[in-house]
Amino acid sequence: MLSIDADPYDFEFDPETTALVIIDMQRDFLEPGGFGEALGNDVSLLRRTIEPTKALLAAFRAAGMMVIHTREGHEPELSDLTPAKKRRGRFPVTIGDAGPMGRILVHGETGHDIIPELYPIDGEPVIDKPGKGAFHATDLEDILRNWGMEKLVVCGVTTEVCVHTTVREANDRGFDCLVVEDCCGSYFPEFQEMGLRMIKAQGGIFGWVASSPAVIAAIA
Ligand code: C5J
Questions:
Q1: What's the number of domains the chain is made of?
Q2: Most buried of 103, 105, 143, 176 (most Cβ within 10 A)?
Q3: In the structure, what pLDDT confidence band is assigned to residue 110 with cuts at 50, 70 and 90?
């Protein structure tokens, strides 16, 4: 067992049964000109996660540990897009419409893909998810159980939406989750802070929180 200096207490893990799950580091959320920016968001608040996540990813790869990537998006015919999700927000341009990087959050479009800095390599599963949580309507749980994973190190965007939903889903399925604070981003600084505080409150009600240097130090 290895140990990470984390809140609310040390996170103990076996590298053989612990996976890194990187949530939705997609061009439409992170890049200037994408869907996120088109909605009026400041993408620099998410882009500050790229360098620490590169280092975290490199550490997992170097240690031979499991890495999983997720992407939020939908089939080209939008068969997996609920009418409620399509309508939500009443934005003039929504999921499936033409955006600056192709159709917004549609599989195969430029904006839907993962940013080049964190691009998956062979052997790293990419989970295409139609919802906010990575377990909903995907085979993530089967993959984790088939590969013998028991604990998850989770990062990505956005902290209070897809990271939170995924951690809550994982927690209810019996996976211990450690969230990497500097590798998670939100367009809203107050949600970033409160989102992380919620996870580790009450003795770690949903999981643990640590910095990427602490995680990397433990793995190295
Ligand atoms: C959002 C996500 N915020 N990946 N998606 O709609 O958090």
A1: 1
A2: 105
A3: very high
